[in-house]
Amino acid sequence: MRIRALFITILAIIACGCNRERPAANAAVEVWGWNIAAASLEALVPAFQQRAPDLAITVTMSGTAMQSRFLLSLVAGVGAPDISQLQLVDAPKFTPSEKLADLTDVAKQYEHEFAPSFWKNCVHDDRVYAI
User: Fold this and answer.
1) For position 95, which CATH number holds?
2) FRET label pair with 114: which of 25, 69, 87, 120, CA 20 to 30 Å apart?
3) Is-contact 47 35, C-beta < 8 A?
């Protein structure tokens, strides 16, 4: 349940661009995930949309090429999702890229809920870029 609440919180933060303004009507957020994890994320969408009914959430299930696709879209500057699922061991490949949103101000409070070895993979230069 805590992971579900954490995901919904992080989704809200990212979807709103880390600002206090409400998202524009009919705003959309694209989320990439793989197989059963994508299905689990899709199952969380209705609960999130109770909090943000004007926000359209699309969960796209990608296969094994998702990381390559994600990296290419970051390098190209187009086509990247708003939120992407990454494997814990792969997060450090992306955090130094300066292409991910800095989540430090809102995510730092959750550090105690993670094992230090997991948390360090989400951080680069003392800034949080992944959860």
Assistant:
1) 3.40.190.10
2) 69
3) no
Domain hosting residue 57, numbered range:
2-128
Which pLDDT tens digit goes with each residue over 6-51? 554 455 445 444 444 555 667 899 999 888 888 889 999 999 999 9
Q: Which amino acid is at 21?
A: E
Strand-pair partners of 57: 29
Nearest residue to 28 via CA among 55, 53, 9: 55
- How would you class 128 by CB atoms within 10 Å of its CB: exposed for 0-12, middle for 13-18, buried for 19 or more? buried
| Parallel, antiparallel or unpaired: strands 55-62 and 83-84 | unpaired
According to DSSP H, which parts of the chain are helical?
A: 2-15, 35-51, 66-76, 91-94, 104-107, 116-119
Give backbone dihedrals phi and psi of 62, rounded to 5 degrees, phi first. -110, 155
- Altogether, the residues listed in the chain come to a count of 131
pTM for the complete prediction?
0.74
Q: Which two tokens stand for residue 124?
A: 């680069």
